[in-house]
Design a protein that fits this description.
The protein has 124 residues and is mainly α. The protein contains nine helices and no strands. Bound molecules: iron/sulfur cluster (SF4) (2 copies).
């Protein structure tokens, strides 16, 4: 799955229609604190450069104000894209538990939802 497809599966937003007009960056109230612009983040999603995005502070600085999505001529909800990127980053950094390494006695008492939640983390 490409990065753009993964972002779409989490956010519902298709970034492939972005034509880099720059309106999102121009309208962002916290652009001054970002090391790369929202427009650049969208472009990096299009070309699958997740590590470049994670090297930046942009998706953390985003304050979820929705201004950019209100202005985007392509109706891309950039706010949701930023949230999807945060989710991908956070899930990636979770420790992954191998079920085969859990002692059988502990498996008997662990709540099943704890295991299910852990497996979900590995799908990001
Ligand atoms: S406003 Fe929309 S079309 Fe323009 S650069 Fe941002 S995401 Fe792309
Ligand atoms: S939602 Fe985030 S990226 Fe969009 S304008 Fe607001 S702070 Fe900037």
């Amino acid at each position: 799955m490409s990065l753009a497809e993964k972002v779409k599966s989490i956010s519902g937003e298709d970034v492939t229609s972005c034509y880099q007009c720059g309106m999102c960056s121009a309208s962002c109230p916290v652009r001054f604190a970002m090391d790369i612009s929202p427009t650049q983040v969208i472009r990096l999603v299009q070309i699958g450069k997740i590590e470049k995005i994670f090297e930046s502070n942009t998706f953390w600085i985003c304050s979820t104000c929705f201004t950019c999505q209100a202005r985007c001529p392509r109706n891309i909800n950039i706010t949701r894209v930023m949230e999807a990127l945060r989710q991908i980053k956070l899930r990636r950094e979770q420790d992954v538990i191998s079920i085969n390494e859990i002692p059988k006695e502990e498996l008997k008492i662990l709540p099943p939802i704890a295991l299910v939640s852990n497996f979900r983390k590995t799908t990001a």
